[in-house]
């Protein structure tokens, strides 16, 4: 499972409005992406590039 988020630097939390601004930036997209970086958070990673991340567990 994954989640794309935009970080609000002032509050130190993720921000849906900031993410929405990135998605709907249109012609302003280069400026919006430069000022409001996005992050990808990945949960429950079982395999990465063909390598199991679970150790010896099946």
Automatic annotation (TrEMBL):
Protein name, per record: Uncharacterized protein
Organism of derivation: Actinoplanes xinjiangensis
Lineage start: Bacteria, Bacillati, Actinomycetota, Actinomycetes, Micromonosporales
Top-level taxon of origin: Bacteria
């Amino acid at each position: 499972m994954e989640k794309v988020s935009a970080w609000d630097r002032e509050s130190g939390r993720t921000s849906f409005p900031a993410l929405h601004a990135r998605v709907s930036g249109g012609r302003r997209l280069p400026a919006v992406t430069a000022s409001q970086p996005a992050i990808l958070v990945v949960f429950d990673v079982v395999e990465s590039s063909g390598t199991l991340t679970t150790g010896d567990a099946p």
